Sequence to fold (303 residues):
Amino acid sequence: MSRCWLCGHPESREVLAATTGGDVTSVDMKISDSHYGRTARIAECLSCGFRYADPLPAPDLVALYSDLEDPDYLEGGEGRMEPFRLILTRCRTLAPGARRLLDIGAGTGLLCLAAREQGLEATGIEPSRWGVEVARTRHRLNVLQGPFPHPGLDGQRFDIVTLIDVIEHVSNPLWLLAGIRNVLEPDGLVVITTPDVRSLAARILGRRWWHYRVAHVCFFTRQTMLKALDQAGLRLVRAEPYAWVLSIGYLAERLERYLPVRRVRTALARTWLGRALFRRRVTLNLHDSITYFAKPCEGKARS
Fold:
């Protein structure tokens, strides 16, 4: 068994047994995946409480993300952009002079698109070839294909670096945060959104929590995130719950994983009134994901 990815402690306990049931493929990495509770074996460090996959569900996660295609994710793009706009508005208050933004794990480029709306010069990094193609052809965005760090960024510095629902997908979170620290301007801002494994929703739902998925290989609490930021030479300046803007139809479909509502949803979808209802969007804040805003620690040089 591996040492804790955060503190290096050698001892851990199993909190979730593996339920992957065979080889993991790029299909399992889809953003729209709804197989809640299907995970690698999840261990919890006995020293710091950090939770991580031990062992990983696949030996080469980057290769799986490179082959990822997720057309279902394209639905509801406008709703998905609303939380990004709110995050960027907060960024402008915390870093009012910001001009250049880097979005790591850019997907199809929606956050970069929202940043461009607000007058920022946005660059994205995304391992999925499909996602990059959508970002470039549909939105005319500057999104580089591959993992971070990327050679196309050599020598560049950014005022804002965003990491929205990404860090839980990587097996080297400290290395990732240190790399981000190295591309930040001295007064730059890092924005990280990730699930909170100690949230009320996570504790009530247990294995059925919607963030327990094959693609998620590590899980933070507020305390372990603070520890990770400090080790990367970053300091927290603000934290707030993350809210999704989703269609009622999407929520109804996902509710089927918990309640026997499929017949009702299907019947409503056949009616004009039901289809109109399902197109409406609502804001959902379950306080089980947190957005962290951090800046470089003063006096600590880049390593």
